[in-house]
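Note to self: the last two entries modelled the partners one at a time, which told us nothing about the interface. This time every component goes in together.
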Amino acid sequence: MNSTHQQRIAARLASRHGAERRFRALGFFSVALSALVLGFLLFTILRNGIPGLDWGFLTASDATDPAKVGIWGALKGSMMTMVVTLALAFPVGVFAAVYLEEFAPKNRWTELIEVSINNLAAVPSIIFGLLGLAVFLALFPNWRSAPLIGGMTLALMTMPVIVISGRNAIKAVPPSIRDAALAIGASPVQTVFHHVLPLALPGILTGTIIGMARALGETAPLLMIGMKAFVATPPEGFTSPSSVLPVQIFLWSDEIDRGFVERTSAAIIVLLAFLLVMNGVAIYLRNRFENRW
Amino acid sequence: MTKPHELDPVTPRLAARDVSVFYGDKRAIDNVSIDIADEYVTAFIGPSGCGKSTFLRSFNRMNDTIAGARVEGSIALDGEDIYKSGMDVVQLRARVGMVFQKPNPFPKTIYENVAYGPRIHGLSSNKAELDEVVERSLQRAGLWDEVKDRLSDSGTALSGGQQQRLCIARAIAVDPEVILMDEPCSALDPIATAKIEELISELRGKYAIVIVTHSMQQAARVSQRTAFFHLGKIVEYGKTSEIFTNPREERTKDYITGRYG
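The predicted structure of the combined assembly is written out below.
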């Protein structure tokens, strides 16, 4: 290397290091901004909500008097709705992903299905609410406001998310593992269930967390199927009328009585805590499967 | 029918007749007929892209898993055409094992890697029997002494050479008749390669072994029969000693002396 080269490199060094510093500053600023927004949100909610968060609030259900309202009815409704959603969307989503990725012939029909599923994941949630209203409630008119119908509606919304993440997770399993299993005489189904799915499970669970978290916070489709009714008792079963957390928050935020401001914030804290617990369980499961080998 | 390349008056374990393999419209193997006997290690050599791996994969129908791949002609295993309709591919692959280019142990324990085959085929009726199969297979693969105290460690934690021997143990655990090896040493260092070659020599006679290799030295060291592939055809098939010292065909000679390949 001659000296002109060295000079040219030296002349550019300052601006190169400058670009480095500017990018880092920009990145730090972006992180700080999002952390700040989150911090502000949490701070406001906690400051407003903590005083309203007591045992009575956690065990009672909706009422007209803000001093007597509680969140238990909506919390139980949300839990039951999520159970229905998970029970429907997870197996259907995973099996659909497995079939499309491992067994379906690659032709125009499967391509069409693939595009449709991707589109389905992007459909606004209110449309799923309309579908729930038009189909599920038309079939089971007595189950208006029930967690079962809510869960079914949200499952429609969650399923495509699980299919997409599931397919990507399955695609990421190295083909050499399939070759190894097939070459030893495993049938295609054995290959999938013994080798491919266990390796894809962490990725599938990540997609499921995202889908379920979205479903938990969903309000619009549930309004459509009548889950905004005033329900003063916790749901007894999957077919009894119920409220859910986000709808309850929405309803209380609309109340004129000042006493509801505190209650709304307290309900948000409960919703966030539920979300954290749900994600925590999913992350625990994911890590457990990742550490299995 | 093209005249099969046959050398020995013994009954062949595998007999390929007029086999052509297509990828879409592209013909990768062109009317190949060959007999492969139990007693020997048979090496397939040839320049890259000559179709030797493709041909090897048609012996256990692994080409079935490739979209657009198609096999014509017949391959008989013990006289039974493996491409006839109604042939059970799962059973075929239990009889014709395979070792791949890159070691591909399951991300499970060493024990599970070897036990998997016998387990899915229901070869052992209890745990003690399965333990015995695992130990015997690992011993035959020359890996037992290195792993006997760590059978519950992950198979992927082993070194590359050990992983490949684990894959060989996994293949022999189901007691196949034929073992296909697709460049089993190409991802390994010379010491690990030497161990695999030694192992191949030890396994000779117990199984019919067909090995695809890029290394002519390796073919010369481990095999007794060599087929030279070029452009999807077998140019020459003969005793390894003769192919390497006194090839009949000009093209074989050119390849062996390093003119191309």
